Amino acid sequence: MEKGKISSLQMAFMMYPTIVATAIIGVPSITAKYAKTDLWLSPIFAALIGYLTVYIAYKLHQLYPQQTVIQFTEKIIGRIPGKIFGFLLIFFYIQNTGLILRGYAEFIVGSFLVRTPISVIMASMVLLCAFIVRGGIEVLGRAAELFVPVFIFPIFILILLLIPDLEFKNIFPVLADGVMPPIKGAIVPGGWFSEFFLIIFLLPFLADMKKGMKSGMKSVFAVMMTLIVVNLTVLFVLGSTTSTKLYPLMNASRYISLADFFEHVESAAMAVWIVGAFVKISVFYYASALGTAQWLNLSDYRPVVWPIGILIVIFSLWSLPSSVDVSRNDINVFPLQSILMQTIIPLLLLLIAIVRKRNRKGTETS
Amino acid sequence: MRWGAFFCTSVVVVLIILYEWPKMKQNPKKDKMAFLTLLLTGLVLSMFNLPQMSGPTQWIETLFRPFGEFMEK
Questions:
Q1: Mind giving me the DSSP string for A313-339?
Q2: CA A271, CA A264: separation in Å to the nearest integer?
Q3: How many angstroms separate the CA atoms of A221 and A227, rounded?
Q4: B67, closest residue in chain A (CA to CA)
Q5: How far apart are CA B39 and CA B62, in angstroms?
Q6: Global pTM value
Q7: What's residue A128's pLDDT?
Q8: DSSP labels, A234-303
Q9: Which residue of A has its CA nearest to B68?
Q10: H or E stretch including A33?
């Protein structure tokens, strides 16, 4: 179905913006709501879910190499339950691609293109992503390799330019209410880290499969460090008002004023951020399209790419009248749904697969 | 019923069929069926007033209400 091959580095480059792109925009303020001034500790706890998810995905991949999750669940838990789980997973990915697209478009409409209809922004992004997904995994991998440095570098510059505005005393008090607030604050970023399960759609196409786990873990670590740095920057600049901002990193970047020349850099930085969102939506879109084609046992995934694009736009609008509903969904529904679908159920699948394999070996030797 | 959205989606669907159909001539019948069924689903759904309509996203929210209440505390 997919004949392309990518390197493990390309996989890491694809996964990094898949988590970071939206996590640096809205998540710091959600974390701050629960963790107050300890928001920089939350990504550390949340990253544990990321490490666990990568481990589960890699172990499942080792048991069933050359297959993605849609194909091997049928072998693990039988045909009908496997199809049901596959459907739920594809549904989860299509629905969440829609939600990500909506979050992206709400951000663009709310901050920059105020008078553009939201459907135009969403449709143009889906059009672009559909072309890259149709191009195959190699195109996606190379695009990620090309664009991710373009995405990371400006964030670094942004943080460097903010150094004069940092108020380091904002970090105190550390752990004033014990360790529970940062752990509760880690639930929402945990949902984002759970998205690392997407590597299960990429692992079968790695040219150097043995490095898959290592580069996945490195990617989790890079995401964790980025989130810690971003949360600390936001905390140092905005202090206790972080939780009241919708897009705290953008609010912080408005503080930049260097030599009367570097001002209003937020528009440049956020223009670059679109590149990250593009890679993120493409990876989700690819997983949805490949998953759907494998679930229906099609000969190729390319015919379903365009129809799924329409479904993604529909899901980005369906029963979400305003941006308030989108952010409520991000807090109240997405974390549990994401961790359940991408970490807990795969963990159960892994346990069942290991037990079944052991039983089979036991009967063979006796 | 929103005719504007439905009309736009119809145009997009026709364009997709014109673009994709010649490329999938040799593909098995099943591929073509899946392609057309998914397009039709999108077209039918675009006829409704989606943002105000109750849908899967809302059902999942109802399902996860205890978790939502925990997060709002």
A1: HHHHHTT--SHHHHHHHHHHTHHHHHH
A2: 12
A3: 10
A4: A332
A5: 28
A6: 0.91
A7: 92
A8: HHHHHGGGGGG-SSHHHHHHTT-EETTTEE-HHHHHHHHHHHHHHHHHHHHHHHHHHHHHHHTT-S-SGG
A9: A332
A10: helix A27-35
Q: What is the CATH architecture of A8-354?
A: Up-down Bundle (1.20)
Q: Which amino acid is at A356?
A: R
- Domain residue extents for chain A: 8-354
Confidence of residue A39 (pLDDT cuts 50, 70, 90): confident
Three-class DSSP category at A25: coil
- Domain chopping of chain B, boundaries: 3-72
- Give B73: exposed, middle or buried? Use CB within 10 Å, 0-12, 13-18, 19+: exposed
Q: How many CA within 13 A on the CB side of residue A111?
A: 24
Residues 6+ apart with CB under 8 A from B26: none
φ/ψ (deg, to 5) at A51: -60, -45
* Residue A303 touches partner B, C-beta closer than 8 Å: yes
Q: Are A317 and B53 in contact (CB under 8 A)?
A: no
Mean predicted confidence (pLDDT) in A287-306: 88
* pLDDT range class, residue B30, cuts 50, 70, 90: confident
Query: Does residue B6 belong to the interface with chain A, where contact is any CB pair within 8 Å?
Result: no
Query: Average pLDDT in the A301-305 region?
Result: 87
A 174-233 residues with CB < 8 A to B: 187-188
Q: What is the pLDDT of residue B1?
A: 59
If you measure CA to CA, which chain B residue comes closest to A329? B61
pLDDT at A330 over 60: yes
Q: DSSP state, A24? A: T
- Determine contact: B67 vs chain A, CB below 8 A: yes
Instruction: Give Cα separations from A151 to A165, A221, A260, A272, A314 (angstroms).
Output: 23, 17, 25, 6, 28
**How far apart are alpha carbons A278 and A125 in whole angstroms?**
7
| pLDDT at res. A78 | 84
Burial A252-287 (b: 16+ CB within 10 A, else e): bbeebeeeeeeeebbeebbebbbbbbbbbbbbbbbb
Under an 8 A CB cutoff, do A298 and B30 touch? yes
pLDDT given at position A283: 92
Q: What is the pLDDT of residue A131?
A: 92
Radius of gyration of chain B, Cα coordinates, nearest whole angstrom: 18
This complex has an ipTM of 0.90
pLDDT (mean) for A285-293: 91
Three-class secondary structure assignment of A153-199: HHHHHHHHHCHHHCCHHHHCCCCCCCCHHHHHHCHHHHHHHHHHHHH
For CA atoms A109, A317, B43, A276, give the dihedral sign. Answer: positive
